[in-house]
Design a protein that fits this description.
single chain; 327 residues; six-stranded parallel β-sheet
Length: 327
Amino acid sequence: MANTPVDIEIEDNAIVAELLGPYNRNIADIERAFQVQVYQRGNQLSISGEPEDIRMATDVFQRLEKRLKQGRNVETGDVNGAIRLARGRPAAPSAPQSEARPAKKITEIQTRKRVIEPRSQTQRDYIGNLVENSLTFGVGPAGTGKTYLAVAAAVSAFLERRVERIVLSRPAVEAGERLGFLPGDMKEKIDPYLRPLYDALHDMLPGETVTKMLENGVFEVAPLAFMRGRTLANAYVVLDEAQNCTSMQMKMFLTRLGENAQMAITGDPSQVDLPRGEKSGLAEAVSLLDGIKGVGIVTFTAEDVVRHPLVARIIQAYDKAAKGDGR
């Protein structure tokens, strides 16, 4: 006996076309994700399939409908994120570590230019840790939103006046290249390493605000080497590409944490660009600080990649090859 289809009525007729996507692309993505069939007539959708698949597909449509009612666009990444959340995939097995706190019903980060929502369960847990903990590690492959969400949390904390400034940092390590002599002053030499952090700021705040805050020193984007000897108080501090920190650099950075400050440290242990034989400080820090109160450790996997779907498959292929080599 066939399962009874579930009908959904879209309350606002004006958003039906946006909900379905160009040429019903969103419907096709949801059908593929959950092995259901979706039939549309006017502002009504009929979903048929297995009960659990219908439930998840319904959840996706409801999430997207809510987003559109709030005046936000629905893009392919939003659909894919809603699909991940509806599946309710548990976070990577890092929750028992370091007493990482679950998200306290935090489902989005508010910045001046946009509202940022999690696109996977791991991202949701990560946001909760970024808000709740004094120190949060986001560890995993590229494209999982680790750095972007950390910068978003820093911007949100600043806008809410929970901190007085934002400090963003990266180790200036060449990614498998030898760039040689770079012309220009110190800022011009190091800016290419820090450009992703500037880009994240501009994605969340008006350009004139970012420029003014950088000029006033309220926002600081600097290489890791510039952190030595400082105490970072009343600040939200983000260290990106932390897999390229040595053990000594990581210890130096961690001990910069001052009063009323929060730190987020992100990195991908599979992309270490340190000289051969040099130990990465990220893996060491995660191991040493596991279980310490106030430290959150969230591990992302290829399933959390929010870039092009091919990126996740590329990462999985490299991981499989690395395991085959016994690395």
